[in-house]
Amino acid sequence: MMMTIADIQAGLKLLSIEEKQRVLALLLNDLAGDDEALKAKLTQEALDDVTAGRLIAHDDVKTWADSLETDHPRPLPR
Question: Which superkingdom does the taxonomy of this entry point to (predicted)?
């Protein structure tokens, strides 16, 4: 049987402030862990792109970014 939001709310009402703080700390640590895993995945993807030679020159990116504030933005560099 799955817990509902109402079940969770009812359970939280029974906890002391210290217990609520521990639950919150555990949730935040869990979320931070997900962020670290995502960061590691994206970093590896970027390194794989560099290794494969899938690069865009800095000057091309800067020209494109600068054009975004104009009436004639340039297409995304490839």
Answer: Bacteria
- Each as own residue / partner, the long-range contacts of residues 47-52 (CB below 8 Å, 24 or more positions apart, any chain) are none
- What pTM value is reported for the model? 0.45
Q: pLDDT in tens for each of the 78 residues of the chain?
A: 677 888 888 888 888 888 888 888 888 887 777 777 878 888 899 999 999 998 999 999 999 999 999 999 999 888
Contacts of 74 by beta carbon, 8 Å cutoff, 6+ apart: 63, 64, 67
- Domain coordinates in residue numbering, the chain: 16-67
